Amino acid sequence: NSVFKDVYREVGILEVFVTCLQRYENLLKDKQYAQDSGEEFELKMEDEKLGTLVMNCLTVLLSSNSNNANVLRECGGTKCIHNLVQYMDCRHQALGMVRELILSTGGEDDMGTLLGMIQSASPSSLTLKSHILKALLTCLRESHRTRTVFRKVGGFVYVMSILVSMEGCLKGDSLSPLWSNIPISQILGLLHMVFNTITVAMRFEPANAKFFHLEVSQI
């Protein structure tokens, strides 16, 4: 029942979910730090289950409900959600929440933040970039508004920066050490995703196509 989306917000459960999400993020930070230090760290099953359930609940609560999205932004939930995208343990769920934020009214900043993660990621982070582009593709296919927002927040430049960072990845025998350890199928998969994203962003959008032709393709 869609009424309960408003009920959860009005009685304060949305803020409780954000607090749970922040605790889950801290656990993932501790796990990442331990792994980087070569130490053992295992999340408790109940913590993983709670984190997953909270993310699934928030995805449903954000769907087609701009008021919930606004409350989430006000209580710092969006920053936490974007931070969770970097962790493989919950990336699928985190991107699902980001997708709903982008599709809601006022999602321009969320799209810009997600695109910024592409540029700040290391050149070898192909999996992260592929997952982000896949989520963006879903948003771009949804509506005219998201395709317009994509242009306004510099989406074309961000996505093209992936191609710049992959320069020399298909040189065959003269590959640099960076690319020689990455399967060619993964490289081609990301390239396909980049071209697909650019194409969908321009589909049925003359303003986007003109912008790409005049401002981006000439660079």
Task: Please characterize this protein's 3D structure.
There is one protein chain. The chain has 219 residues and is an all-alpha fold. It folds into two domains: 1-105; 113-218. Helices cover 75% and strands 0% of the residues. It contains 13 helices and no strands. The chain has helices at residues 3-10, 13-36, 45-62, 66-74, 77-84, 91-103, 108-120, 126-142, 144-152, 155-165, 177-180, 184-202, 206-216. Helix 2 (13-36) runs parallel beside helix 5 and helix 7 runs antiparallel to helix 8 (126-142). It is flat. The N and C termini lie far apart (50 Å).
Describe the secondary-structure layout:
Elements: H1 3-10, H2 13-36, H3 45-62, H4 66-74, H5 77-84, H6 91-103, H7 108-120, H8 126-142, H9 144-152, H10 155-165, H11 177-180, H12 184-202, H13 206-216
Helix pairs in contact: 2-3, 2-5, 3-6, 5-6, 6-8, 7-8, 7-10, 8-9, 8-12, 10-12
Domain Alfy-like armadillo-like repeat: 126-216
Keywords: WD repeat
InterPro entries: Alfy-like_Arm-like, ARM-like, ARM-type_fold, BEACH_domain_protein
